[in-house]
Specification:
By secondary structure, the chain is an alpha/beta fold. It contains 10 helices and 7 strands. α8 links the parallel β4 and β5. It starts with a helix and ends in an 8-residue tail after the last helix.
Length: about 220
């Protein structure tokens, strides 16, 4: 049987779907949504070998989800465009609505650390304009340098315990990191509340903020 144009198109769509069918590749896309990264950096952040990271990235590139360039002896990857973030967001929303296991995980880990309604982008913009609020970026320093919310203070999660004196206990804190399921902000919120700080979490992260056309600063 010959393949018609619709079947041919669906075959290409399926290529993208297969590329998304890996937790490691989805996590790599989350990291690449922060900015361009080398294979070595992605391997370390995701916790896979260099060879495995390279294989995952090749699959993402064949599916048109990422682009690459050579910088000296390193190969650096970036998202193909902003629509890739939209695909991953839609995937997580469908799973959240229709898979019971997602809710089990959310309740057992995420809700335990932050059971309050997160701050929306619109609400945070209003607070930044109208009153004192500390916007806390808990991502690693290299990610902060490639873009962050205006006026944000960067204290990576692994440094938070030693840098509490940099935060005012009298000022509300809104913490954010890589996206809606990034564990860094959930851990930061739990740690700061345990120490008496008034803190809430942004509903998503820098990539979604930037995709909405909101202002971004660079270190």
């Amino acid at each position: 049987m010959s393949t018609g144009p619709k079947q041919a198109l669906y075959g290409e769509f399926a290529l993208v779907a297969r590329a998304l069918g890996s937790p490691h590749r989805l996590e790599m896309l989350e990291h690449l949504a922060q900015g361009e990264r080398s294979v070595e950096t992605l391997a370390a952040r995701v916790g896979v070998t260099l060879a495995n990271a390279s294989q995952h990235l090749q699959q993402l590139r064949r599916a048109g989800l990422v682009n690459s360039r050579r910088a000296g002896k390193y190969v650096r990857y970036r998202l193909a465009d902003e629509s890739v973030l939209g695909v991953v967001t839609a995937l997580s929303e469908v799973a959240s609505r229709n898979l019971a296991e997602v809710e089990v995980i959310r309740q057992s880990y995420f809700a335990e650390r932050d059971d309050l309604e997160p701050v929306s982008r619109k609400e945070l913009l209003g607070r930044m304009r109208d009153g004192p609020v500390t916007v806390l970026d808990v991502r690693p320093m290299d990610e902060f340098a490639t873009g962050h919310l205006p006026g944000a203070v960067n204290i990576p999660l692994n440094e938070l315990e030693d840098r509490l004196t940099e935060l005012s206990p009298d000022q509300e804190i809104v913490a954010y990191c890589r996206g809606p399921w990034c564990v860094l902000s959930f851990e930061a919120v739990a740690a700061l509340r345990a120490r008496g700080f008034s803190v809430r979490r942004l509903q998503d992260g820098l990539p979604e903020w930037r995709a909405a056309g909101l202002p971004v600063e660079y270190a």
